[in-house]
Amino acid sequence: MDILIKNGRIINAHSDFKGDVLVRNGKIAAVGQKLDSKSADKVIDASSLLVLPGAIDAHTHLEMKMGKTYSADGYESGTRAAACGGVTTVFDYTLQENGKPMLEEIADRDKLAAGKACVDYAFHGGISEVNDARLNEVYDMVKQGFPSIKAYMTYAFGLDDIALYRLLCTSADAKALITVHAESHGIVEANRAEFKKEGLTDVWYHYLSRPEIAEEEADIRAIKLAEAAGAPLYIVHLGNEAGERYLAKARAEGLPIYAETCPHYLAFTNEVYKRPDGIRFICSPPMKGIESQIALWEGVSRGVIDTIATDHCPAQSFEKDWGLKDYTLAPCGCMGIENMYPYMLNAAGKGMISYERAVEVCSANPAKLFGCDTKGAIEPGRDADIVLYDPKKEFTISVDNMHSNIDYTIYEGMKLKGYPVMTMSRGMIVYEDGVFKGEAGYGKLLRRKISSAYNY
Ligand SMILES: [Zn+2]
Prior knowledge:
By secondary structure, the chain is α/β, with parallel strands linked by helices. The protein contains 13 helices and 19 strands.
């Protein structure tokens, strides 16, 4: 089946031109001017549309256990929402229980995802114990196509400095990319305990327990540990100004340190925790002050921040409400999988960044950093993961037009100019004009190459 997309404005990370795209057998067969339409089974007139590579959401938590509940989107509803928001590859994070090999955790998660995922998916490994067995496994992870591993610096399953440093040393040798949740365990836990003792459990104290400096301290320590180990590092969900400045400094010195931020840190500040529905915005790290929001936008436009991902990990409103009187009882996490690409493209339409930059941070860079060489560009030979985007379409985000399994959205009422009108996953139309058209089980597990972070 050949599909010819005619006369679109084709946007990659470093190019923007009018042309045609020929899709054949799920791949992009040709990109050029006036391609012959005779062989095409279907011709799409894209003359008023942008033709973009599908986004890659490199940070989600689907069907993840969170205390007494699970994150509200499973592999089917999460990837359905992804498809409807122009995301064609979803990375899920596995956790690692003590004693269980990382590859076994991935195999178990894959049993949940296979048969349900509507777009392609990948897994980062997770590590919560560092010993010789786990460190040896890092080499197997890379060989088997899972060359990225997440470490936490806080929570009960977080790594201390010795463990994180040993992991970074091994990763440098094995050519794995360590991604790190950087918040200071000491500052956060001491604050939480103190607030609890004083009965300070309003949602605002979620922010106060994890303030800007809690992130900054861990960002700096993680960067220094990576430098000492000679390892690249990827900081997930960067949310604070000082960390962003320190990252820019490390980068200027030539260190292979990369960072991701999330749409909710760009769209909101800590003011949300003063709203009546503030409990719904509980996530870690929390949204910070306006200085951080400004710095993050600067980082996105100047190139210090490499990727946008969502940390999609929502809970239903009644579950969030468990924390109304005591924020520590609310499940932690926000939604975003369907909002990321439209939100960033809307910002591009407003001139805050270029469309090329939006494509770079949402698709090309995650493809490179996480070794997805079949994704991330409209280019012959790549998978036909394509989004057709109407830059003039008016769209107001509402729980009623989202495709997740969640009973609210933190983006309710947000007005966007521009919205995806079609998503293709390997040449199959999975979303068109507001309607999901894919099928559960179509998505394939992606095995990946070594990160571009090793090409420095
Ligand atoms: Zn996360």
